[in-house]
Write a sequence for this structure.
């Protein structure tokens, strides 16, 4: 096929996929009818062919598939000459100077017809589709995309080229409607790191549009050849699609191209290395060579390089511990790199140092394709209003009198069930106090063993009616948007607390091995896991108080 970037499938007469790959597929086929199909970005090329008895080798050639691309280049369905001209002009102009030695480029564009159909009533909302980006260094905002980018809303684009000091930065995007998302930006001396995004309509009106971060194209280019080469983009798309599938399905020709072309675009080398790690028997000698070359291009302290080297050491010396004192403070570009680092941090709390960006992002990562992204910040105020201490004391005294009264009641069975239901409802405000004591009982200043954390999880599951509380949280969510502020770890823990509570209510003993697997799969430092558990305890106590207030 003429396009290495398109995934290929061969389907037999029974509609079963008998072979798949990228760019080129070789397969031994029995006699019969088959269909070769290449599809990417919502478009496809297909051809039906027959394999005859005794027929030798045959070639089936498909035309190049034109597909959607965040990079405005020929051979795609989403390229426009005015977008290409805007990118070329951005590279031709002197860059915005915020330092020296490394480059950063960001393109946000809308390839649809939307720029040309806006009215006086919709233009302002449409313009918001290209806003909200900030490039930050620690707590300082270095680039405000809203002010610094060159934009033409009537043609649907905003572009910015800047020169900065080499180092680690965070690109943060904020929207009143969609919240905040952050992703790492790592700038290397004498290289331009490039990020290309497309915006897509969301909701009923479609405005403002939202950047598609998951399908973003991330490239690196030397200062002297800034515009991304079509070959590099197509190779990176092959690797990105393969990583999304979790399998190294690229053929030898494509892998050789990735490894060769990494000298012109190191992102290709990072993608190739992760694909090589997916092999059933990774070629360690080849990986060592790739690591050596990437180390020269990116530096040994590049977070993705630390992750790849850590995984390679684990494969070469399975019984050896990682180097003493090794830690990572800044997140890597790729989610696959993050998963390697996070597994290590789950075993060693100091691997993500307290106060580091890795520690902050550990429980707030979001699904973002092959690239790492997280929701920054922490919840700073309760989402539901708990009872004050004075209110709690008054209600406890009042409830005690009512409970004593109903315990003396001698009614029939039906009335007795009503009494028991009343007692359960009256117990709600006591849950908040119970959670306060629960949190107080946990020593947060000392490292917690996995056994201690398991005990905390079991106690928390049994202490609160999680099913009922989460139903209330769902009711409140439209008003408070609290679920958006829950961490990814908490969203995973809540359904498991529900299931664990059911086990406890049946009188069964929780399976320690399954609980260990669950906690290990979270891939967060134990201190972060503990913080999330205590956050859920506070949430549960506050929700229980809210339930009582509504039922009193």
């Amino acid at each position: 096929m003429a396009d290495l970037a398109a995934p290929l499938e061969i389907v037999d007469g029974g509609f079963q996929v008998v072979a798949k790959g990228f760019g080129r597929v070789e397969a031994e086929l029995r006699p019969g009818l088959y269909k070769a199909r290449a599809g990417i970005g919502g478009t496809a090329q297909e051809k039906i062919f027959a394999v005859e008895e005794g027929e030798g080798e045959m070639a089936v050639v498909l035309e190049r598939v034109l597909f959607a691309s965040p990079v405005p280049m020929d051979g795609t369905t989403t390229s426009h000459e005015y977008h290409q001209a805007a990118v070329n002009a951005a590279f031709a102009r002197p860059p915005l100077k915020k330092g020296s030695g490394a480059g950063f480029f960001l393109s946000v564009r809308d390839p649809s017809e939307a720029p040309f159909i806006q009215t006086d009533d919709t233009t302002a909302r449409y313009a918001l589709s290209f806003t909200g980006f900030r490039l930050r260094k620690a707590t300082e905002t270095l680039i405000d995309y809203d002010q610094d980018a060159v934009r033409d809303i009537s043609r649907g684009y905003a572009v910015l080229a800047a020169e900065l000091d080499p180092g680690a930065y965070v690109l943060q995007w904020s929207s009143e409607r969609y919240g905040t998302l952050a992703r790492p930006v790592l700038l290397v001396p004498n290289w331009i790191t490039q990020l290309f995004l497309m915006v897509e309509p969301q909701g009923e009106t479609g405005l403002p549009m939202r950047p598609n971060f998951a399908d973003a194209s991330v490239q690196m280019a030397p200062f002297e050849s800034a515009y991304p080469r079509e070959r590099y983009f197509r190779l990176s798309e092959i690797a990105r699609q393969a990583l999304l599938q979790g399998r190294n399905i690229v053929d030898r020709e494509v892998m050789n191209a990735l490894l060769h072309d990494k000298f012109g675009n190191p992102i290709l080398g990072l993608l190739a290395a992760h694909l090589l790690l997916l092999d059933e028997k990774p070629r360690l000698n080849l990986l060592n060579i790739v690591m050596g070359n990437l180390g020269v291009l990116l530096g040994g302290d590049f977070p993705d390089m630390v992750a790849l080297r850590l995984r390679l050491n684990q494969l070469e010396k399975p019984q050896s511990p990682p180097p003493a004192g090794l830690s990572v403070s800044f997140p890597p570009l790729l989610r696959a790199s993050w998963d390697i680092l996070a597994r290590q941090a789950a075993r060693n709390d100091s691997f993500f140092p307290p106060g580091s960006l890795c520690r902050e992002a550990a429980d707030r990562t979001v699904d973002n394709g092959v690239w790492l992204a997280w929701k920054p910040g922490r919840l700073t105020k309760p989402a539901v209003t708990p009872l004050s201490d004075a209110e709690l004391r008054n209600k406890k005294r009042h409830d005690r009198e009512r409970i004593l009264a109903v315990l003396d009641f001698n009614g029939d069975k039906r009335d007795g069930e009503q009494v028991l239901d009343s007692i359960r409802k009256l117990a709600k405000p006591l849950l908040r106090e119970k959670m306060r004591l629960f949190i107080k009982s946990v020593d947060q200043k000392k490292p917690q063993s996995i056994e201690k954390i398991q005990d905390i999880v079991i106690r928390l599951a049994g202490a609160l009616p999680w099913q009922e509380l989460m139903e209330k949280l769902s009711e409140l969510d439209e008003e408070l948007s609290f679920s958006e502020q829950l961490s990814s770890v908490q969203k995973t823990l809540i359904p498991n607390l529900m299931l664990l509570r059911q086990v406890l209510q049946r009188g069964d003993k929780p399976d320690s091995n399954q609980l260990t697997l669950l906690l290990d799969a979270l891939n967060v430092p134990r201190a972060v896991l503990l913080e999330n558990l205590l956050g859920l305890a506070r949430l549960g106590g506050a929700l229980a108080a809210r339930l009582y207030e509504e039922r009193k």
The mean pLDDT is 84. DSSP finds 18 helices and 15 strands in the chain.
